[in-house]
Amino acid sequence: MQQFLENIIPNVMSKPSELLKAIIDTLIMVGISGAISFVLGLIFGIIITVTKRGGVLENTIVYNILDKAINIFRAIPFIILLTWVLPISRAIVGSGIGVQGAIVPLVFGVVPFFARQIESALAEVSPGVIEAAQAMGLSPFAIIFKVYLREGIPTIARATTLTAINLIGLTAMAGVVGAGGLGDFAIRYGHNRFQEDVTWVTVIIIVVIVTIVQLVGDFMVKKNTH
Amino acid sequence: MAQIRLENISKTFHSKHHTVEAVKDVSLEIDKGEIYGIIGFSGAGKSTLVRCINLLERPTAGEVFLGDTELTSLSAAELRQHRKKIGMIFQQFNLLASRTVEKNISLPLESSGKSREDIAKKVAELLEYVGLSDKAKAYPSQLSGGQKQRVAIARALANDPEVLLCDEATSALDPQTTKSILNLLVKLNRELGITIVVITHEMAVIKKICNRVAVMEHGKIVEEGEVFSVFADPQQQITRDFINTTSNLSEVYELIEQDSPVVRLKNGEKLVKLQYLKAEVSEPLISAVTQKLGVIFNILFSDVEIIDGCPLGGTVSILSGAKSAEAVEYLKEKGIHVEVIKDAAVS
């Protein structure tokens, strides 16, 4: 087996510890920026839903500011965002490069997208159910937590899966700014040094990670759909 | 004292290019313990009007009283407290798909400071009341339409409301299920003393359970009164249209138009429509006329129902006999509304 692998993927087998580190770096970046983005995106998605016209906490000013901000950040290509938020990244995490440095741009890249996903997920909660909740005297916060978030779980799970997979893609791209991880690994060896087997193995590993995320997501959707 | 009082309620919806006046200057009073119907075709403004009662729609003008309290002047928190006194059920049931039946019913009780045991006890009572004790752990998607509406009713009753608003609550149900839901509404009106406001486009619903009715058209109430008197003596064309939807008497006009052999008269015969207007009609009038004047009734259509405890309706018959003119006079004296549709008098 060892022999066989060394034959077909010699360049990968020559640096197993580097590959392992790349995998771990990717998982750390996806994990940390994913967790932060999930919370922020959820909050912004909820705010934009409830402050909308006819929402349970209608507020035109808040809605308009948030709506425009999301549009602006979504319009910026990620590769530009990566360099653009460098100063902010330095201010927050103390570094613009490496795994640490990648987290801030990843959050900036993912949150607006995820907020929109949450907005459309919550829009699928029937307005009639919200109306019924209001009619029974539930407070706006009770409506958010007991109705929107609870009824929205299947669609939120779907949106989260989609976003997590996008995030994995962005993380690979963050390798460009020396963020480390699988993207960086593939570019340094696979692209720059023509070690094609490295590219192939990285792609397969990313496919495996994406597949696992998708399976977990599908399971969550299924479990919460009645 | 009135349980619900609407004073000069108007509701106008503005969009960029046009405004819609959904409700125009409506005032009405609904007494405690009555079942009040509001009927109208879709777009008449009845759903908007009923939403003005619990301020799901805030009226553009006018005041809403629940007992002594004027609702539009309340703070958001006070309004939520008052909304607990007003249950509401909907055409689409609006149950939470992610919660079981019992969790749907307990939703309005959560965060009310009640203990878990008290809530469980109340939910069990409500399930028993609507006859769904065996479905406590089921999800709404596993229930039939009628069962879903029963759950919605149980949920609406959770806070022991004084008023129940029903927005087309039976419009998505089949006739058999509609009947059982209407019976349940009557039951909770009688047993729990809940004032019920019913919004519908079906005259049959009004006829079956309401004490008073308001007919809505183009955002206004065009006719209002006791269901019996509105049925017996409608003033507006739209009211007559609604009444005709539940009566087959008007089919005779179609037969005449088609020149059906059923309505072709022989010499001396009269085609008449008789309608009961007075609540106290209980004499066997047709038999009396036959015995007294020897006039024979050939009944083509008959539609008599008991509304609010009184017989209402009428028949379309062909009268034959020498004294048929006298028979018509006699019936009129007895308070029957007689319309001679066709008269083949001997000339």
Brief sketch in words of this structure:
The complex is a heterodimer of chains A (226) and B (347). Chain A has helices spanning 2-8, 10-13, 16-51, 60-75, 78-84, 86-93, 98-123, 127-135, 140-151, 153-174, 181-191, 196-223.
Instruction: Estimate the global geometry of chain A from the Cα principal axes.
Output: elongated
- Helix fraction bin of chain B: 25-40%
* Sequence stretches where pLDDT stays below 50 over 5 or more residues of chain A: none
Which segments of chain B are poorly predicted (pLDDT under 50) over 5 or more consecutive residues? Answer: none
Largest Cβ-defined interface: A-B, 20 and 32 residues
What order do the helices and strands of chain A follow?
HHHHHHHHHHHH
Which secondary-structure class do the elements of chain A indicate?
Answer: mainly alpha
State the CATH topology of the largest domain in chain B: Rossmann fold
Main pleated sheet of chain A: none
What labels would you give this structure?
heterodimer, A: 226 residues, mainly alpha, MetI-like fold, elongated, B: 347 residues, alpha/beta, Rossmann fold, Alpha-Beta Plaits, six-stranded mixed beta sheet, four-stranded antiparallel beta sheet, 12 helices
Describe the structure.
The complex is a heterodimer of chains A (226) and B (347). Chain A has helices spanning 2-8, 10-13, 16-51, 60-75, 78-84, 86-93, 98-123, 127-135, 140-151, 153-174, 181-191, 196-223. Chain A has 226 residues and is mostly helical. In chain A, α6 (86-93) crosses α7, α10 (153-174) packs parallel to α11 (181-191) and α11 (181-191) runs antiparallel to α12 (196-223). Chain B is an alpha/beta fold and 347 residues long. In chain B, the strands form 3 sheets. Chain B has a 6-stranded mixed β-sheet, sandwiched between helices. Chain B has a 4-stranded antiparallel β-sheet with strand order 2-1-4-5, with helices on one face. Chain B has a 4-stranded antiparallel β-sheet with strand order 12-13-11-14. Chain B starts with a strand and ends with a strand. Chain A binds chain B through residues 126, 128-129, 131-139, 142, 146-147, 150-151, 153, 224, 226, and chain B through 54, 56, 77, 80-84, 86-88, 90, 92, 94-99, 107-108, 110-111, 139-141, 152, 155-156, 158-159, 165.
